[in-house]
Amino acid sequence: MSILRFHLNDRPIEDAEVPPTTTLLNYLRQRAHLTGTKEGCAEGDCGACTVVMLDAETDPAAPRFRAVNACLMFVPMVQGRRVYTVEGLRKNGTLHPVQAAMVERLGSQCGYCTPGVVMSAFEACYREDLREPWQLDDQMCGNLCRCTGYRPIREAVDLVAGTCPEDCFKKQRAEAQPAELEFGRASAGRCYVQPTSLVALWQALAE
Ligand code: FES
Ligand code: FES
């Protein structure tokens, strides 16, 4: 891969010095210095590294946000795409409704699990197909806490799921180019890379 190009929290990124075997998580923390995204297990189990990408694979006419595990992704997988981290949610000094709900319901816990929780809940905010309690449980089940409880978090997610606030994120969603976005959905509210993306990855690694 010659030059990494993508949007990070709506800022265009061009980086010619990143090895293609760098994980998105390490890129965010070590290169972009966005340390809100945490490393817990580094193998896709804990959700501490959850960030959000735009996805047009399910419905190219209506791209939508997907929570992904940054520890499982290499940077070529975000080439030409849009990535959002917990640092990108607050706009003009105003908390995103997901963050506000976490504050209101006292769902904010430690700095390790909370950023990932917020990003999974962020996806739920824009999902209109999560109506049943078990669906919201499913959406959040990839984010683990090792020490306290989940009830305040679930109350916060209940507050915001499907509310789709009219803010800049809707505009970004409308502007997303389907060709940029090839992410598909697997089970348990998680998103994994489609084979087409893996082909692109290995091509990039071979360059
Ligand atoms: Fe645990 Fe990525 S660090 S899922
Ligand atoms: Fe964050 Fe338990 S892991 S509060």
How would you describe the overall organization of this protein?
- It is a single chain.
- The N and C termini lie close together (6 Å).
- The protein has a single domain (4-206), classed as Roll (Ubiquitin-like (UB roll)), CATH 3.10.20.30.
- The strands form 2 sheets. It has a 5-stranded mixed sheet with strand order 2-1-5-3-4, covered by helices on one side.
- It is built from 7 helices and 7 strands, in the order ββαβββαααααββα.
- The model is unreliable at 177-207 (pLDDT under 50).
- A hairpin with a 5-residue loop joins β6 (183-185) and β7 (191-193).
- By secondary structure, the chain is of the alpha+beta class.
- α2 (97-104) crosses α3 (114-125), α2 packs across α5 (151-160) and α3 (114-125) packs parallel to α5.
- It is globular.
- Bound molecules: FE2/S2 (inorganic) cluster (FES) (2 copies).
- One FE2/S2 (inorganic) cluster is lined by residues 109-110, 112-113, 145-148.
Topology (elements, then pairings):
Layout lengths: L3 E5 L2 E5 L8 H8 L18 E6 L8 E6 L12 E3 L12 H8 L9 H12 L7 H8 L10 H10 L7 H8 L7 E3 L5 E3 L1 H12 L1
Parallel strand pairs: 1-5
Antiparallel strand pairs: 1-2, 3-4, 3-5, 6-7
Entry keywords:
single chain, 207 residues, alpha+beta, Ubiquitin-like (UB roll), five-stranded mixed sheet, two-stranded antiparallel ribbon, globular, disordered C terminus, binds FE2/S2 (inorganic) cluster
